[in-house]
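Record type: ASSEMBLY
Status: queued
Input:
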Amino acid sequence: MATIQVDGRSYEVDGKDNLLQACLTLGFDLPYFCWHPALGSVGACRQCAVKQYRDADDTQGALVMACMVPAADGSRISIEDEQAREFRASVIEWLMVHHPHDCPVCEEGGHCHLQDMTVMTGHSRRRYRFRKRTHRNQYLGPFIAHEMNRCITCYRCVRFYRDYAGGEDLGAFGANDNVYFGRHREGVLENEFSGNLTEVCPTGVFTDRTHSERYTRKWDLQFAPSVCHQCSVGCNISPGERYGDIRRIENRYHGEVNRFFLCDRGRFGYGYVNRDDRPRRPEWHGETEETVTLDVDEALDRGADALREARRVIGIGSPRASLESNDQLRELVGQANFSTGIAEREQVCLTRMRRLNRDAGLPTPTLRDVESHDAILVLGEDLIQSAARLGLSVRQAVLARRERLAEARGIPAWNAEAVMTLAQDARHPLFVAYPTATGLDDVADRCLRQAPDDIARLGFAVAHAIDVKAPAVEGIDESTKATAEHIAETLLAAKRPLVISGGSLESTAIIEASGNIARALATRGRRGGLMLVRREANSTGVELLGSRPLEWALDELTRGAADAVVVLENDLHQRLPSGRVERALSAARTVIVLDHQRTSIWERADLGLPAASFAEGDGTLVSLEGRAQRFFQVFEPRYHRPETRIHQGWRWLQALRASLKRRAVPDVTLDAVTRDCARHHPALAGIVEASPSADQRVSGLKLARQPHRYSGRTAMRAHLDVSEPRPPQDPDTPFTFSMEGYYGFDRPRREVPFAWAPGWNSPQAWNKFTDEVGGHLRGGDPGVRLLEPTEDIGDYVNEIPPPFTSGVGEWQVVVLPRLFGGEETSSRATPIMARAAAVRLHLSEEDARRLEAEEGDTLVVETSLTRLSLPLRVDTTLPSGLVGVPAGLEAALVTGDRAWLSLAPEGEEEPP
Amino acid sequence: MFTSLISGTWSQLRTLGMVFLHAFRRRETVNYPDEEVYLPPRFRGRIVLTRDPDGEERCVACNLCAVACPVDCIALEKGEKEDGRWYPSSFRINFSRCIYCGMCEEACPTSAIQLTPDFEMSEYRRQDLVYEKEDLQIDGPGKDHDYHFYKVAGLAIAGKDKGQGPDEAAPVDVKTLLP
Ligand code: SF4
Ligand code: SF4
Ligand code: SF4
Ligand code: SF4
Ligand code: FES
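Status: finished
Output:
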C-alpha cells in the first residue's frame, strides 16, 4: 500500500502499480492509449501525462507519463493541472492530424476508445490544414477487417499479437510517419486469438469483419451476460443482438476466467444462431414424406400421444445443452431411461477426470491462477486446438518468468519493454507431450512427440520419479527415463507446478498418468495444480448427472427394449458411427428431437421441437474447472419474427411432461428448474448460487439488456405493426428486454450484460467495473466452483499400457482436435468454415515414403468400421505408425483404432 | 350597485361592437386547402433522404439520426456496396411517432436526411404513416447542394482510391527506407 496525493487529496493505492493504474482504480478519468491492463506500459502515446511534484513546496512540478511512473508512497500529482490538460489536448490533436474523416463509416464508432479520449480531452476542431498521410489496407482473412488510415501508432496490436499471444505474422513496418501495422503480405491472420485485436486496438484499424457484414452500433445492440458454448473453458461473453440476429460477440470480463481475451472460435463462431435453415417451428415428419409445421399446442399433443403409446421412452441428453434441459429430460423419461448422450469412451474419460479433480490431491486452478504456475507439463493435449483460451493462459504462465526476473531487480511488472529486454528468452519450463506439433511448441522447453500410449508411459514414469511409491514403468528405455526424471526434477523444483491433461486423445491411461503425477506432487507437499480438459461446454456438468453413455441408449432401442426416444440438442452422427445410430433410430417407433440446428437427426425425427440456442435461452453450464455459470437469454425471438416458436429445451420438456400426464402446462421459471436440478443431484447443489435469481433488483430496478441510447424502438418493427407491442417480459431472469432498468457501474453487480460508463463507450469501460484495473468484478466474479479436492489423496493407479509398436502395414488412428471446424455448432458458422484449414491426413515422412505417397496425394484410410479418403499432409513431427485424422470429420474414426492405408485408386473422389 | 350595472352593460356593448368591427379587418387564416400555404424553406415537415452532387445516395448508414431521434422512430440497417461504400439497405421512419423536431437532420454528418416544407401527410390508416426507404429517397441534394461525404472521408470507393481525396498524400510505401 502507498499513499499518493492527487490534486491535493490523499488516497491509498497499491504501490506496485503505476500512477495511471492507480488513478484509474481510484475512478479518475485519465486518458490513455498504449497502456493496457494485460499488456503493461511502454509510454508510446504520451496521452496519460500528469503533473508530478517533488514535495509540498514544489509548485512548478514536471509533466510525467503516468503509465511510466510508479505509484510510490508520498507521490504528489495533479491530473487537473492546466499544463497537463493542455498537453493531453495537444497530444490528441497531433494524433488526429492524419486521422481520416471516417467516424460515420467506421465500425469502431460508438465503442471507440479514440472517440472517448478525444471527447475527454475536449479536442473538437481540426486546425491542421495540410495533407494527410494515407495507407493501403490488407485482406486479413474472414475474421478481421483492416483500415490502416485510422492508426494512431500506439503499438498495442503488435504487443498483444506478438508478445502476448505469440503470433508471428503481424508486425510494425516502416519508420517515423510511415509506420504500418499489418502482415508482410496480404493473407489470413494465423493466430488463434486475432479477434482480440478488435478490442485491443483503440481505433477502427482492426474491426470485426463478421460484425461488419450486418453492422449495428454498440448502442443499438441488446446484450445479456452469456457464457461461450464453443468449448469447455467457459469464457464469459456479451453477445449483441439486433433484429433477431446475433450481430457480434464481445468479451465479458471475468476476473478469474477469460479476463480480457477470447479465442477466435468463441468470438466468431456464433453464426449458427443466425442460420436461415434453423428450425423455428415444431415440425412433424409423418409417414407421408411431407413436413408439417405445427403450433406449440398441436406439437405437444402429438408428442405426448406418441410418447403415451410407447412402451418405454429413452432420453438422450447432450453435453452442449444446459444442465436444466438435461435434467428436465431426465425427469420426463426417468433416471432409468436417461443417457448423457456422450459416447462411452469419452464418458469414461470424463468420469476419471471428475474423480481426479476430487482425489488427486491438487486443486484445479482458474485460468487466471494458471498464469501464476511456474512449471507446466501438458500430457496429450494440443491446448490451442482443444481449449484455446487455456492455451493462452499457459503461454502467460511460461512468459511470467520475465516478471519474476524483473522483480528480483526491482523492475515493476508493468514496465513491459524493460521486463522483456531484461528477460530475453528466459521462460518458465513447459513440457508438451503430444503426437504431433502443438500451438505452444514455440515456448516449450521440450516437445515430446509420441503415440498416446507412450505419452501415458512417460507420465507414469514422471510420477514414479517424483514419488517412488508411484508404480514404476516396466521396460522403459533409458532416454525416456532420463526425460521423465528431468521433468520430475523440474516440477519438484518449481514453487507451483501444474499438470495439464485431458480427454482429447480419449486415453484413460494418459488421464491416470496425470493423476499419478498430481498425487505424487501432492504427497511431496507441492502447492501445484491439476487441470483436465473436457471437450464441450457442458461435458463436466452432464457427467455429474451420472448416467449411462450413448451406446447404451442406442442398444436399448436396437434390441427393442424401448420404442421411443427423445434426443436433446445432440447430433448423434457426430458421436458414433452412422450405421449404429441409424439402426437404433429406425428401430424406434417414435423419435422426438429438440434442437436449434437442422441436424441429420432432426431431419429424420417424427417430431422436431425448435429449442433455443444460447442466444434465446437461459441455463447453467459447468466449465472444465468445475465452475457452474449461468448464461442468459439475449433476445426474445418472437419479437422480430412473430411466427417463430422457439423455446428453451427445459421449457419444451417440462411442457411435454405435463401434456403426457394430461395436466395443464404450468408456468415454470428458470429459477424453479435450476432449483429442481440442484435438488435432484447433490453434486450440483451449488448451481443455485451460480448467479442471482430473477428477483434481484438494483435500487428497486431490474437490469437493462439495452444501452440507454438504444434507438429505433418505435420503428424497428413498425412494418409489422405500427402499434408497438409491449416489450417481451422476462420472468426467468433479473434482466429486461428494454433500456429500462439499471445499467450503471457504481452499484456492484455480478452479471453485467454490457460495459458502459459515462465517457467510456469502448471495452475499456470494464475498468470501471473492477475492484482494481485487471482485478475482479466489484460485484464478485460470476459462477460457483463445484469440484474442490477432498482431503484424502486417492491411491496411485497402475494402468500402465505397453509401449506403442506399429504393426507392419498397419497404423494407429489419432484424432486431432481442431479449433476451427472441429466443433459441432461453430463449424456451421460461415466465417469458421472459411477459416478452417483444408482437412488433411497426417502421416510421418517415413510412412509416406513407405506408401510412396507425396504431399497432396489422396490416401484411403480404412478401419473395421469405415473408409475415408483424404489428401495427405506429410507431418514431420508425427511418429511413424500413427495416422492423424482431423476431428469433426467422421465419428467412426476413433483414437486408438487400427487402420490400413493405401493410395487412392485413380479417379477416387475427395470428400468436400 | 347602480354604477356597476351601468359600467357592466357598457362593457358588454363595447365588446360586441369591437367583435363586429373585426369582421372588416384583413384575414389572418388562409382558405386551406383551396389556397396554398406559404411555408418558409426551413419549415420542418416531411423527411427526405437526399443524394450527393454525383447523384449517389448520401446516407452512409451511420445511425446517428436514429440515435438522436427523441422518439426513436428511425430504424435503418447498414449495407455495403462492392467498392466498400456504406449505404442503408433499409431505412424506415415511423411518421406516426415523429415530432418533426429536426434532431435527425442536425445529427446527420452527410446532409442526407433533411426536413422539408411539406406537412400534407395525413392518412386514414396509421400504418400508412410508416415510410420505407423508397418513400423517403429523393433525387436531388435538397437544401445542401455541395456536400459530398465520401470525397472527404478516408475510405476508398470506386473512382476515389486511397490518397486521391482532397488534402491526401499518396499512400505510404512501407518498403522505402527514405524518411
Ligand atoms: S493498429 Fe490500432 S493497436 Fe495497432 S498501433 Fe494502430 S491504433 Fe494502435
Ligand atoms: S476458449 Fe473456448 S470458451 Fe473461450 S472464447 Fe474460445 S471457444 Fe469460447
Ligand atoms: S424530426 Fe425528430 S422525431 Fe422526427 S425523425 Fe427526426 S429526430 Fe425523430
Ligand atoms: S445520420 Fe445521415 S448518414 Fe447517418 S444514417 Fe442518418 S441519414 Fe444516414
Ligand atoms: S498510456 Fe501512458 S504513454 Fe501511452
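Annotation: The two ends of chain B are 103 Å apart (CA to CA).
Annotation: The beta strands of chain B are 47-49, 74-80, 86-94, 113-115, 130-131, 168-171.
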